[in-house]
Automatic annotation (TrEMBL):
One of its GO terms (molecular function) is S-adenosylmethionine-dependent methyltransferase activity. The keyword Zinc does not apply. Pfam families: Methyltransf_3. This is Putative O-methyltransferase YrrM. Keywords: Methyltransferase, S-adenosyl-L-methionine, Transferase. It comes from Salsuginibacillus halophilus. One of its GO terms (biological process) is methylation. Gene3D superfamilies: Vaccinia Virus protein VP39. InterPro entries: Cation-dep_OMT (IPR050362), SAM-dependent_MTases_sf (IPR029063), SAM_O-MeTrfase (IPR002935).
């Protein structure tokens, strides 16, 4: 659960963002409509990593209502081109509305559909500096395997929610309705840690962020 008092405080410490009124509106909408969006401390970490890597092209799996895509595109030290995929029709339409409100169509392009059936999106190998995974947690490994070839050598694959409400460490302790998902996130984390083609670090911010650099 996002502590919006904390978010507002942290935002007050950042240089003024011309889009902050819109971002605040999107955060309020997310609370009202129970739409999960990235927590601020995790988001700031990702922005810092993108800035450090001088990332210009980002592919996001899981747009929701466009909040993180807009932040990636507009809130760093440089603007970035973001392509983002969302399978929920209602959320995709809201994301389009938010992208338009930010006058960011030049920077953020949204595709609607199942990300695992997205070959028609014409995404080329080694074309992105960053792959950001924040969609169906049970499919994290499938997303990684499907889209890793799209990341340039030396690029980053960043995965949100790898703590999964704190249950990924010990899935057997998760409530029954979340136990299967917790097991899948647990297995995904172990696979990331063991994958020698990537150097992965895990960060205890937000709901957990994994950063995998492609060798």
């Amino acid at each position: 659960m996002i502590d919006h008092n904390k978010v507002d405080y942290l935002q007050s410490l950042q240089p003024e963002d011309e889009h902050e009124a819109l971002f605040a509106h999107i955060r309020s909408y997310a609370v009202e409509h129970n739409v999960p969006i990235m927590e601020e401390d995790g988001l700031q970490l990702v922005l810092d990593l993108m800035d450090a890597a001088k990332a210009e092209d980002v592919l996001e799996i899981g747009s929701a209502i466009g909040y993180s895509a807009l932040r990636f595109a507009l809130s760093g030290r440089m603007k970035r081109r973001v392509q983002t995929i969302e399978r929920d029709e209602v959320r995709a339409q809201k994301a389009r509305t938010n992208i338009s409100a930010a006058d960011a169509e030049e920077w953020v392009k949204i595709y609607e559909g199942d990300a695992l059936q997205a070959d028609h999106f014409a995404i080329s190998p080694s074309s992105f500096d960053v792959l950001f995974i924040d969609a169906a947690k049970g499919a994290y490994q499938a997303f990684f395997d499907h889209y890793a070839p799209c990341v340039k050598p030396g690029g980053l694959i960043i995965t949100d929610n790898v703590l999964f409400r704190g249950y990924a460490e010990a899935p057997e302790k998760a409530p029954k309705r979340w136990r299967s998902m917790a097991k899948k996130v647990h297995a995904y984390n172990r696979e990331l840690a063991a994958n020698t083609a990537y150097t992965t670090t895990f960060h205890a911010v937000g709901d957990g962020v994994a950063v995998s650099q492609k060798d």
